Amino acid sequence: MGGYGKANIMEKKGLDLLTEEGRILLKNLYSFSESTLLALTLVGECFNQFIEGQVAKANVIKNRVRYWRKSYQEIILQCNDEGVFQFTCWKDKGEWLFDIWKGTIILNEYEKGILRQIFYIAEGICGNRILSNVKRSDHYHTNWVRPWWGIKMKKIVTIGDHVFLESDRVR
Length: 171
Known about the structure:
This protein is mostly helical. The chain has eight helices and three strands. The chain has helices spanning 6-10, 20-29, 34-46, 51-68, 72-76, 89-92, 94-102, 109-126, and strands at residues 139-142, 154-159, 162-166. Strand 2 (154-159) and strand 3 form a beta hairpin. Helix 3 crosses helix 4 (51-68), helix 3 (34-46) crosses helix 8 (109-126) and helix 4 runs parallel beside helix 8 (109-126). The longest helix has 18 residues, at 51-68.
């Protein structure tokens, strides 16, 4: 497992692939509210999914915060020693997410509605106003893969094309 500290994350090898703007984003992420950071992560992880999947992924992150006793920043921005983020959207789409936040990407009305929906979900999850639809799940993956890390985990539910799992850490 990689470290959780801000300095540790900024020193990871994989981050040298980011542009200067991407590095600025990563530094600024620690000043974002929990709900904003969660919302941007959901935009990257599940913008194209139905609301049930968006709520499910938000609840997985909330479960990690609760049961792993870490902050939203520590969970969302966690990366391993090679600089690979826990949530791939921060590696693959980090600069796109920064552009969404800055408002430099033009969204159509449908996309603006999804964005509002995701921010509403994030605020509801962080404010304990949305119930969990994944129980104590703290992991998920698409249903067409079988990752090595999920072999010993308990399957809780399938929502859309994702399987939600419970690890030993929450039992």
